[in-house]
Every structure is written in C-alpha cells, then in structure tokens.
Amino acid sequence: MVSRILNTSRVLYFSEEKSQFLSREMGWEFHKKSQLSQIKVDLCSKENVVVVLIGTKIDELELLKDFPENSLWVHLYADEIYSPKLNLALMKLKSVRGILRSYPLPETTLLGSLKRWIYANSRFLLQRRRLDSDFLHSCLSGLVIVGRQHFCKFLHLVYGISHISLIPGYTNLFASSIAEYVNGFGDGDISLLSETSQKNIESSFERPRKFAIGFVGQLGNAWRKFLLEQLMETSNVLEDESIKLVSRNGFGGTVGANGADQHSGKEYVEILCNSSFVLVPPGNYAQSTFRFLESIVCGASPLFDFHSPTDPGYLPPFGTGIDLLKLLTSIKESRALEPSFPSSLVQIEMPSDIWKLEARQFLKKANEELLQKSK
Fold first, then answer.
1. CATH number of the structural domain spanning residue 257
2. What is the CA angle 227-318-79, rounded to 5?
3. Are residues 92 and 236 in the same domain?
4. What is the three-state SS of 166-213?
5. Is 125 within a domain?
6. Closest CA to 166 of 293, 353, 300
7. Does 332 map to a domain?
8. Closest by CA position to 23, among listed 78, 89, 100, 97
9. Range of 92's domain?
10. 189 and 306 in one domain?
C-alpha cells in the first residue's frame, strides 16, 4: 500500500479525514495522518512531496523529527498559522522544507502594518462612537496579530524556510451539505470548483437570486459584530428581503461543533447559493476565512472591507475590497439598494465566473510553486 502511494503520487496530503477538502481542490492524493509514520524510510525519494497537516498540539512535532532532511511541507491553518511557539518549533526541525499557510503573511513592513492598524482602529472608533472594553479588546487583538505575523515573517528570514500562501479551503460541513443540496452532484469527492461540479451547482440555483447580500455565521469579535450590526440595521431600513443575515452562537463549520448539523449546513448553503454577494468579515485569527472560497463555489461574489482593525496587514485578493461601512451608510441614507449598491461596487464587482477562474488560477499557481520549490 505504502509503496504504491510513493510510486504513483506527486503530492501526498496527510491529514485528518474531516480536513481533506484542500487535497480535492489541489489535486493531491489524500491519506489519513495515521499513515504518515509508515513512509519515513521511503521519503528520501526526491520525486515526491509530502504535505502534512499539523494539529495545535506541539507534542505532535515529535513525529517529524526522524524524517529525512528537507522532506516535509507542513500545512498550517486557523489558530496554528501565527502561533509563535509552533512556528519556531517547526522551523528548528531539519525535516521541514517549508510551510503552507491558509492565510498569508503581510506584504507590508512592520511599520506599514502598524500604520494600517492605527488607521483602521481610528476609523472603527469614529464609526462606533464609543470607547469600551469591546473596542479595546479589538485593538489589542489586532496588535497581537500584527506582532505574530511579523514574528513569523522574521523566522522565515532567519531560518531560510520557504512559505506559500493558499486560499483557505472550505469546511467539511459545507462540502457535505452542498453535495446533499445539489441534485445529481455525485459522491462529492471531486473538486467543488471543477466545471462538472459548477454545472451541477448552478443548475440548482434560484434564478434570479433572491438576496443581494447574504451572511450566515457567528457574531465573533467586536469589529465583525459591528459590521454585522450595520448590515442588520441596513436590512431593517430597507424593509424587504434583499439582505439576509442569520446569526449563530459559534463556529459551525464542523459537524457537531456548537450543534452544527446537516440542517444548519443546508441553510448556510441555500443562502449562499441564493445571494449575489456574501459578506466576508474577518475571522478570529485573520481576515481570511473559509467563507471566501465557499461563497465563490456557490457563485456569489465575496464582499471584503478594505480596512480591518483585527488584521490590518491583509490585502483583499485579486485587488478587490471596498469601504463596507460607507456602502451600508449610503444604502441606509437613500433607503434603497439603488443607486448606492451598484455605484459603490463598480470597482470590485466581478462576474461569478471570473471569481471562479481567479480562484482556480490561484490554487494552480500555488501548486506549481510548491512543486518547483520541492525539486
């Protein structure tokens, strides 16, 4: 079994079964992480790349110490990405060739990130018009994230370890829910961005789309909560169903997490598939979230705010991003989506097919970069 894997695969992805979404989109061969220890001896072959998804427990790194030098790439996601302790421990391992990150490191300098942090929090305070513990916590969280991001960036320079940023994948609940929601989807094991999958998904859409803007998720940190409160106020002013917002008590991307099940997953998919735009507020650890790729899969355009106080160094993908608060204020003042909505989005509105093409190209480029750096 192990011999066959090494002879036939270019990229092997070892992960927990619930996290195999990335391997589907990248065209990698998925294997359970428990199989990793079986291939230590055979990893000397330079014809293979191994990608390992590491958990948050740092003691799991003991498993990687006996691998050949420069034989492993490690994929980090969620709260692991900017963990100083975990990143430092990884880069000290001789077996680690590079790190794949679901969220990017900042392109700006530390000073540039701090300037963006000051601007974003000043803007947040002016809009919120009150100074309280939630605002202060948001400021501190953003500053901590900036510090961690640039510390990780510094570690890459010091240790000479490569890194590649990927668009975050989608959650396992989303993948299983959309497979259930879409007629004739099949077994759901193929890429959700593939042309076959997209044809099946599009045939299940409601035409025209029922909602202009949709969102389903937890309220989260102070900045995210404020954005969603503004979206709800805008919806109440319009007094129609052009904006759909469903709040949850906690993260629901994994089956069983905070009561998440197939029913809640189906509701999420239905709203995304019937929205022209999907609000993509920052997550707890970075601006990038699973919702970005999930909205594209569903044929909706993701809406990013360009100035996030919780992740000020983040630059929206493909040159997009808007002043979301300005947009919502304009809609409320005019008490209508027209003309505020189209005019505010003219710079970032892209047809769903372009979003899908950009996402496919981004993933392809990341895969090619991985293979190139592994030679």
1. 3.40.50
2. 55
3. no
4. CCCCCCHHHHHHHHHHCCCCCCCCCCCCCHHHHHHHHCCCCCCCCEEE
5. no
6. 293
7. yes
8. 100
9. 2-101
10. yes
Number of structural domains, the chain? 2
pLDDT tens readout for residues 28-69 = 888 888 787 777 656 655 566 677 777 656 777 877 887 888
Contact predicate 153/84, CB 8 Å: no
52 φ, ψ to 5°? -115, 130
| Co-location of 350 and 206 in the same domain | yes
Nearest to 218 by CA among 269, 283, 272: 283
The winner for highest mean pLDDT among 64-78, 104-118, 244-258 is 104-118
39 class by beta-carbon count within 10 Å (0-12 exposed, 13-18 middle, 19+ buried): buried
* Residue 26: inside a domain: yes
The span from the CA of 294 to the CA of 51, in Å, is: 23
52: which 2 tokens?
A: 């390992």
Q: 204 and 329 share a domain?
A: yes
pTM above 0.90, yes or no: no
* Dihedral sign (CA 209, 192, 281, 222): positive
Do 327 and 216 reside in the same domain of the chain?
A: yes
Look up residue 14 and give its two tokens: 């070892």
Return the SS3 of 113.
helix
Q: Is residue 23 part of a domain?
A: yes
Please state, in angstroms and rounded to a whole number, the distance separating the CA atoms of residues 321 and 85.
Answer: 32
DSSP string of 73-134? EEEE-GGGTT-HHHHHHHHT-TTEEEEEESSPPPSS-HHHHHHHHHHHHHHHHHHH----HH
Nearest Cα neighbor of 288 from 306, 311, 307 is 311
Instruction: Label the pairing between strands 243-248 and 211-218.
Output: parallel
Q: Looking at 63, 82, 101, which one is the last position of a domain?
A: 101
CA distance linking residue 121 with residue 311, whole number of Å: 11
Mark whether 86 and 204 lie in a shared domain: no
Tokens 């490191």 correspond to: 105
d(CA 152, CA 136): 24
Q: Of 54, 72, 101, which residue sits at a domain end?
A: 101
pLDDT of residue 91: 93
Q: How many CB atoms lie within 10 A of CB 178?
A: 27
The token pair that represents 49 in the structure block: 């790349």
Q: Which pLDDT tens digit goes with each residue over 284-308?
A: 767 778 888 899 999 888 888 877 8
